[in-house]
Design brief:
Strand content: 5-15%
Number of helices: 14
CATH class of the largest domain: Mainly Alpha
Strand order of the largest sheet: 3-4-2-5
Largest sheet: 4 strands, antiparallel
Order of helices and strands: HHEHEHEEHEHHEHHHHHHH
């Protein structure tokens, strides 16, 4: 166990990530299909900031409760499946939040008055906020535009810093992370709020960072192995093993504070906004760490193996001790020796053994002749 952890920390493991890439592709493909089906059948549970509506907040004092709120809404004729009632808690007070669809001003006033009477409060104690559906659509369009601009800028940067194949792979990995995160919200029916969108954009930043770390090592090893007959699959495997511990440490360091927000902030203190933000972050951080190893880098390998430079070594992988030898020496085992032997055989030199191999003992030195 200690030896395994020591090798992991030193980047000396020999996991065959690239050879098992289809496992990650199949798992991700299944999740993306589930996401698409859920979006077409269920859609997203958009919050009031996106679809518009009215929100009331009532302090939990006196005889007010969720049951009483439901009675008020039913008496006003607005009780349906689109209504959302939550209990918000803090250290000082607890409040009930009611979210409704678009309502007329008269209906809003009637509901507020009924809530005031039931809770035995003043009108100022029951807050009302209204968001138009037009404003919600504008926010949605701006979020989509921001996402597209982010993808464009990232593509240009990676293409200039590395190459276009890496840009395609990184964009595919980020789209994969967002798709799975959105799919989780759709399948579970979680509410999508502006905090969720901010979390999604944060997810993209983390996913990109983790992918660039691996790509930078791949780029470095490509130059290192350029003088030997090393396949690009070997370059990918060596690179991912070398940065595996760094990726795990980065992910754990990012996940622990998010878990604190989710468990302590949301679970203990009842901060609903923190729960929406932390849940999206938690899912995104997990998928970001996964996609950098199982989506972005293997996809890069597939694209790169089709180039003229690495096409001859396509499908050839150094495993186990051969990968260790490749990491330490920078040269592959077996293939390079066989390639040299084949070249020698074709030239005919392999049929003539060297002189040293024929003699059973070294030749005696010749005596100098006397003058």
């Amino acid at each position: 166990m200690r030896v395994g952890m020591r090798r992991l920390y030193r980047g000396e493991t020999t996991f065959n990530f690239y050879g098992r890439r289809n496992i990650g592709f199949i798992a991700s493909g299944f999740l993306v299909v589930v996401t698409i089906l859920s979006l077409f059948t269920q859609g997203l549970n958009l919050g009031i900031d996106f679809k518009g509506g009215v929100a009331f907040e009532v302090p939990m004092q006196g005889s007010i409760s969720i049951e009483v709120v439901e009675e008020v809404l039913e008496s006003e004729g607005v009780l349906d499946d689109g209504i959302k009632i939550q209990t918000l808690k803090s250290e000082t007070e607890s409040r009930i939040r009611i979210q409704l669809g678009d309502q007329t001003p008269e209906k809003v006033t009637a509901i507020q008055t009924a809530l005031v009477e039931k809770a035995k409060l003043t009108v100022n104690d029951v807050s009302v906020s209204t968001v138009s559906s037009t404003w919600g659509r504008n926010i949605t369009l701006k979020a989509i535009n921001a996402l597209l601009v982010f993808f464009l800028v990232v593509s240009i940067f990676i293409s200039l810093r590395f190459e276009w194949r890496m840009a395609i792979s990184a964009i595919a990995a980020m789209a994969h992370d967002v798709a799975i995160s959105v799919g989780l919200y759709s399948v579970l029916g979680l509410e999508v709020t502006p905090a969720t969108v901010v979390a999604f954009l944060t997810i993209l930043g983390f996913s990109l960072y983790d992918t660039i770390v691996v790509f930078d090592k791949v780029h470095e090893n490509t130059s290192r192995f350029s003088g030997s007959k090393v396949s690009y699959g070997d370059v990918v495997n060596v690179s991912m093993n070398q940065v595996l511990m760094r990726s795990l440490n980065t992910s754990l360091a990012a996940v622990l504070p998010v878990l604190s927000l989710l468990v302590v902030g949301s679970g203990v203190f009842g901060a609903v906004a923190l729960r929406e933000f932390a849940l999206a972050l938690l899912v995104g951080l997990a998928t970001g760490a996964y996609s950098s190893i199982y989506i972005a880098t293997p996809l890069l390998g597939l694209l790169k193996e089709r180039s003229a430079q690495f096409a001859s070594g396509r499908g050839q992988l150094s495993l186990g001790p051969d990968m260790e030898h490749l990491m330490s020496t920078g040269a592959p085992v077996g293939r390079r020796a066989s390639a040299s032997a084949s070249a020698a055989a074709s030239s005919g030199s392999a049929l003539r053994p060297p002189v040293d191999a024929i003699l059973s003992h070294p030749p005696r030195p010749r005596k100098k002749s006397r003058r």
